[in-house]
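Annotated sample (chain length 291).
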Amino acid sequence: MLGIKQLGKEEIVSILDRAAYWESYPKKVTDVLQGKFVANMFFENSTRTRFSFEVAEKRLGAEVLNFSAAASSVEKGESIYDTVRTLESMGIDAGVIRMKPIGLLAELAQKIKVPLINAGDGNNEHPTQALLDFYTMRKVFGEFKGLTVSIIGDVLHSRVARSNVYGLTKLGAKVKFCAPVNMQAPELAEYADYVSIDEALQSDVVMMLRVQLERHAGGMIKSAEEYREHYGLTVERMQRMKPHAIIMHPAPVNRNVEIDDELVEHEKSKIFTQMSHGVPIRMAVVERALV
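Output written by the structure step:
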């Protein structure tokens, strides 16, 4: 599972269907992956994604190994490849990887024999986040045909935007981007048009992207306040959304920057619902890799 771009519509739907099975499963822990060892290799910090994968793996009955780059030989200069190859040689059955370098995961997959699952690689893809987003949309709207989804914010640096637009267009939804000129990704123009914030608010799904403040040291945004004024989902803007429309966000949330504080848990918001769907989606993905 390196990305959504390589998956067909039928495979995406089959993962969503299997996640529905796991979400409704009556027992918290199963023995589906009993005797299997899964290593979570996070070369980039994460909270939600890492814990969600760990819960998913443990619910499936797997033995879980958690690897943190900050407390490892990577700090001493060991390459990511050598680290993954070392864990493979110790007998892991699958690896979940999050890393900053773009393109390296595909190279690793050519050399590593055990299944690898992408938990986010640079600004390339974040497939399991997109899958849980699709799952959330399907639970609310039933189908993707005729659905319009606006993705608003820093599209340029967003792996979430990429995985979502690749998958949503395959599933039959129409995607619109809304971003400042210096946060647009020209290579994604073939998948979706860039529209104004007013037009973006008229979609069925309004997905706000996190303002990645750590990536903007070069001054891509002048201030958080100015960003909110032009592109944030304020209470006033929310009131212009369609009555049935929902708010989504991959989290973590910068409250009162890309979305007003009181909207995070508003009745239109599915932000915490999305997080809850991460576990059954990742159960389906890990099971797919090992069964």
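Annotation: The longest helix spans residues 271-290.
Annotation: The chain has a mean pLDDT of 94.
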